[in-house]
Amino acid sequence: MVTNMPNFYQPEIETASREKILEIQNEKIVKQVRHVYENVKYYRDLMDKKGVTPDDIKSVDDIKKLPFLSKDDLREAYPYGLLGTDLKNCVRIQSTSGTTGRRVVAFYTQADIDMWEECCARAIVAAGGTNEDVCHVCYGYGLFTGGPGLNGGSHKVGCLTLPMSSGNTERQIQFMMDLGSTILCCTPSYAAYIGETLAEMGYKPEDNKLKAGIFGAEPWTEEMRRSIEKSLGIKAYDIYGLTETSGPGVSFECSEQTGMHINEDHFYAEIIDPDTGETLPEGEKGELVFTSLDKEAFPLLRYRTRDICVLTRNKCSCGRTHVKMSKPMGRSDDMMIIRGVNVFPSQIEAVLLKTGYTPNYQIIVDRVNNTDTLDINVELNPEQFSDKLSIIQEMEKKLEHEMRTMLGIGSKVHLVAPKSIVRSEGKAVRVIDKRKLID
Ligand code: DLL
């Protein structure tokens, strides 16, 4: 008996054989490279410098010959230097803030928008979305790609779309209850906050009509997934993407929840060693690199995402054949080096959720007397809170021990009062690295 019938938005492509996918990719890459070479002087110069011509690229196997592009290139070419078509053919700009300096600005033709929205539609259908759903989008709208991307995907699926944008949580909840939202799209940290607020307002998880959530734009752990699923009474699906490649929907989770299928007919993925740039074999952990296969306005060849993950091609029970990427295990540039040890915020979050703490925390890294310090502020929930100092100190000591086991270095844990850490409505700011402010 088939219980959980898999649904596809574009079944012929989402379940295509490996040979068929390669055929599509090989055909598209030849055209995409030629398009870039002829229209993007910045990248043509990089290819010329490396001695590669469009004739050298006959299939995706030849992608290795191409030069990389990085965020630094985007900054240098800002704003129009990587444009692949006349501005008059572009209909949209989206943007995201980088960690430093100039914003990333991406351009879209109408065909680029259609492709992007189709990718998001695939994600919504994979999460069980149909034209009978009420899709509540509280990713930010405007320059951020989250709102517009999922909004477009939701329209394509035919869901009744609620373009809420982020913020005003009580109003979000009122609409959610009154209009019977069934699919929630936002960052995982905001989903956790909505769950927390619902409980505070006296609602139980079964009081809402939500069945699924499509959460992404920031790293989140399996523990966080389980906690959100419990608080909202839903199945929570991951979605990944970045402004440079179009936005959300480059990859998305299916019912198996064991990684995100990359839309391989539009994006070719590689994993490289972030230090040497060497391509790594399947199954190895490294930096994710994307080559767009059919973008017009903002095509990117071998774009280094800085996201660290693993690609796998195990057969998926959902029937999709596209390669899967693991949850990004932090970004190579998010990695903190503390006293010489690599530390990722996701490791800290995993410890907190495993030990029954809230996902509301802040990491403060500093340098005192030439030594790095790591402080972790962790919010207690009202049941954990105690006004007995000795109890709190004992809990802090225990958590410091757990952290040392996970991270390999010592830290100072500060348990703080419920509600004292500011909630995020978009991407959560987890790390304050004061060393960077001094440099
Ligand atoms: O965050 C696009 C997006 C919107 C994705 C809504 C998913 C949902 P940017 O602002 O350009 O675009 O940030 C891209 O965010 O390189 C990752 O480091 C991180 N990121 C995105 N999705 C995930 C995810 C959007 N599911 C950067 N898990 C990427 C972990 C993610 N990190």
The 3D shape can be described as: globular
Classify the beta-strand content into a percent band.
15-25%
Largest sheet composition: 9 strands, mixed
Which regions are unreliable across 5 or more consecutive residues at pLDDT < 50?
none
The percentage helix is 25-40%
Describe this structure in words.
This protein is an alpha/beta fold. Helix content is 32%, strand content 23%. It is built from 12 helices and 20 strands. It has helices at residues 11-14, 18-39, 41-50, 71-77, 110-126, 146-157, 169-179, 188-200, 222-232, 345-354, 389-407, 434-438; strands at residues 92-96, 104-108, 134-137, 160-163, 183-186, 212-216, 235-242, 247-253, 260-262, 267-272, 286-292, 303-309, 311-312, 324-325, 336-338, 341-343, 361-368, 371-379, 412-416, 431-433. The strands form 5 sheets. Strands 4-3-5-6-7-8-9-14-13 form a 9-stranded mixed β-sheet. Strands 19-18-17-20 form a 4-stranded mixed β-sheet. A hairpin with a 7-residue loop joins strand 1 (92-96) and strand 2. Helix 7 packs across helix 8 (188-200), helix 9 (222-232) packs across helix 10 and helix 10 packs across helix 11 (389-407). The model has no long low-confidence stretch (mean pLDDT 93). Bound molecules: 5'-O-[hydroxy(phenylacetyl)phosphoryl]adenosine (DLL). Residues 96, 139, 145-146, 216-219, 238-243, 247-248, 305, 307, 327-328, 331 line the site of 5'-O-[hydroxy(phenylacetyl)phosphoryl]adenosine (DLL).
